[in-house]
Amino acid sequence: MSAPVAVSGQGRGTPTGIAFVDCELKGAAPPEGQPRRREVVFNGKHIKTVDVHAHCAIPEAMSLLERKADRPGLLMADTSLADRIRAMDEQGIDVEALSINPYWYGADRDLAAEVIRIQNEKLAEISAAQPDRFVAFATIALQHPDLAAEQLQDGVKKYGLRGASVGGSVNGEELADPKFHPFWAKAEELDVLVFLHPQGTAELARRVTGNGGLDNTIGNPLETTIALSHLIFEGTLDRFPGLKLCAAHGGGYLPSYAGRSDAIGLTFPDRYKALKKRPTEYLRQLYFDTLIFTPEALRHLVAETGPSQLMLGTDYPYPWTKTSVDHILATPELTDEERIAMLGGNAVRLLGIED
Question: What residue ranges define each of the domains in the chain, with the CATH number in brackets?
Fold first, then answer.
């Protein structure tokens, strides 16, 4: 029997009393050939880890729009589901919050309604079959805001889904546009989390070609930055102060350069419409995943937003990182309590997961 890998320390910096423990240590050896399940333990207590940024796809729904998944791991068939759970076990992920990136924003009302029905039913089915491993965000047809509000209501009340996932824009329209207020009002009323994932910056297609995959590398975080900035500056977050919104990829570039958002009101007051608080203060009203790539970046994100606003994210099955748990554990200057919150405590609370 292998021993747990333990790390000790005190206060900020190295985590104290933490161990990675496999299932054999709990007296249940895994089936032959199957990797042991990693667990995160602080001071002898298992910490439930929750991945808030995990993609999937429903082929039946995609076929209605003649779409195919671009990565096999997205498909939630029986075989890929087993592979996914195996990957979760290897990485130390207890629960994934499943989401589907919107590809249906161009569909008419009836077609979009059918796509969403199929997806939400399947997401509910997956979550019910493996309730200790999966929860899911409802999909919604945000191009039809009144329908989207109804779909969110059904997703939460009828299907037991934990919130909704949305793109960073809708056919070139900003999420802060008043036409989307019915959806934001419903999300606030239901008190559920909305997960925002960028769709890229199609308007800049000519400038993000060439080497480096710039449409993804900088295009995705740029769209998130634009979307969040509009939600702040157009007063959407003032209008819906109870809205719970989580932005993928650490919120794009906004937390890294947020001070400029405060400075614009002083430097160019003619370009600034008064808000209820300074733009940077809204960062502590928003939520973010931890899918950023260095300890210093994570330390800075914590400093800007507070640890209560951050949740672990992997972007599965895209191989940005397989060390999202270790990234949080190894970031200096964090307390054990902050690590526990980001690894799962915040998501457990926001998504209504049984602890």
Answer: 1-47 (no CATH), 48-351 (3.20.20.140)
